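Help wanted!
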Amino acid sequence: MLMSFETLVFYMFAVITVFASLRVITARNPVHAALFLVLAFCTAAGVWMLLEAEFLAITLVLVYVGAVMVLFLFVVMMLDINLEQLREGFWRWFPFGALLAIIMVFQMIWVLGNRQTAETGAQVIKHAANYSNTKELGRLIYTDYVYAFELAAVLLLVAIVAAIALTLRRRKDARSQEPDKQILVKKADRLRIVSVVVENKENKSQ
Amino acid sequence: MEKIANFFKSFLLVELLKGMALTGRHFFARKITVQFPEEKTPQGYRFRGLHALRRYANGEERCIGCKLCEAVCPAMAIHIETEERSDNTRRTTRYDIDLVKCIFCGLCEEACPVDAIVETRILEYHGENRSDLYYTKPMLLAVGAKYEEQIAKDKASDAKYR
Amino acid sequence: MTELMQYLQNLLGVAWLPVWTLVKILVIVVPIMLTVAYLTLAERKVIGYMQVRIGPNRVGYFGLLQPLADGLKLLMKEIIVPSGSNRFLFVSAPILALMPALAAWAVVPFDDGMVLADVNAGLLYILAMTSLGVYGIIIAGWASNSKYAFLGSLRSAAQIVSYEIPMGFGLVCVLMVSQSMNLGDIVLGQSGSAGLLGWYFIPLFPIFVVYFISGVAETNRAPFDMAEGESEIVAGFHVEYSGMAFALFFLAEYANMILIAILTAIMFLGGWLPPFDIAPFNLLPGIFWLLAKTSFMLFLFLWFRATFPRYRYDQLMRLGWKVFIPLTLVWLVIVGAWMQTPYWLW
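Answered by r_m:
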């Protein structure tokens, strides 16, 4: 059976995604692991693109690859990691990790193997060229799912406020500059020109 | 009131635009670049460039081997060896200037009692390795022979200030 | 012409589509590379003129062969890979820097319908591609195994991530006004009898300014070139690079500059539309107007570099987070409200 071009592209993306995800957990160097995660995100975006979810695919690249992973890399690169020390507790925590993995596998099977989800997911609905996934998504978010959306927004806002509140501390001893005040300084504010009376006339003539 | 004025001043980027106007004006200004090999900046007659050893008009070399230049040289770039010639005068057998060390201060020229070592106006000499810039006596004499006319003229213009 | 195309189409069969797309890609990429080369010359000339010098004029008439000479020189040089570096990442970093800078051009329309990929999410695609450029820099800094390169890449990454936000908000404003994410439709939304008055830079003037300045910061150009910071961290992220690997970073930086300039022209200055829709102006082809506007924006890049001293890093972050982001957010609300009133004319 000849595969269609689209299927071929899907399998290519899928293989790269699986390979990259495996390398994320097996790579020794944490920076390499983070970069493999970037690769996994990119290929996942490609798979989403095949599903005509271009808005979500590009947002995945924009938010996760363009911002989140950059910050991840930032932190990982600056850490001074001792790999030996990291591997010490491997076998002690292995049963716990394996249990979690097994639970997750069963959950996936439960969701994906479910007849209901499988039936709707099997057929991808093809749309005309002028169909805009973004517009549809926007319409749904602001009509049918507006409460969920607003709730998520409030949640994020709370998270932002909390993060700032946790990290912001005004240090009294810090002598940070305030550039907006600095640039307003004028000569007249700081410099006073006084005319000094010269007492000794001979010195003056010199 | 002043605060409001400052607010508008910073948000309308007034100062940045002023700066750009300045560079924008210079964009059209007359350029002052000197196109070196074709055009040259004027040189004074006291210009201190490549060294030369001079001779008298009768062909006798001026240098009497007094080693004052060697003594005064702050960079220790001059190396002189002397011996007595058959006519019982003291002459140099070696007169080397290491141009890599030389700082072109002109003190050797000042120290010389017979105007033998001089600095010419030549500045476009070059060497492909360090040894090319180690000038020996014949090389210095050759420079002197080649540019004697110019050197004499420069010395004459400077004479009244000495 | 059409007969020739028909003939080739029959000749190549299934291979026609990839071949024809490849030809179109080359038609876009080759002029970009030439523009990049001559932009370096233009930069040296413009900055020279503003400093009352005359810039390069020895290689060829008016220095016109200078970029070729520079390119040849870099091509002949050895690529030195530092001993403590990660070889694979070190070599792939310049490619990662250049690739998104070129990939973004796929959705840029040069005239009505003259675009490689007429996708509906063009604006988002551009935003995603410009945000990927940071990887080349960050990987270059890390793989070099040098503290200067690493510092430069950290600075650059933080800067690019910060300035992406005001740029993104700026694009949201454009998106709101034009009601489309297709760059071609955005330009067409600015057309009308009013000519220049119909362009989006008038209602979105603060956004236009913020977008362009953020663009300058995003491309790590002076006065926001702390990532290079010659006087502090020697050359930043590409300090260990030589030869063609360095040249690729150079190409990426200038290709990004041209991209930002052409995007500003498309989104705010009416793209290929003439400034007045009357006889002498609308006779010229659209691409001429687009390139004229792009050249003007590029000239501004060079003008900035000749005028302003480098920002300090904390001031840069302050400008991005405390001035630009609030400003764009405020204008987003203003435009949103304005569009609901009858006074909205665009």
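OP: Thanks! One thing I noticed: The CA atoms of residues 97 and 175 of chain C lie 27 Å apart.
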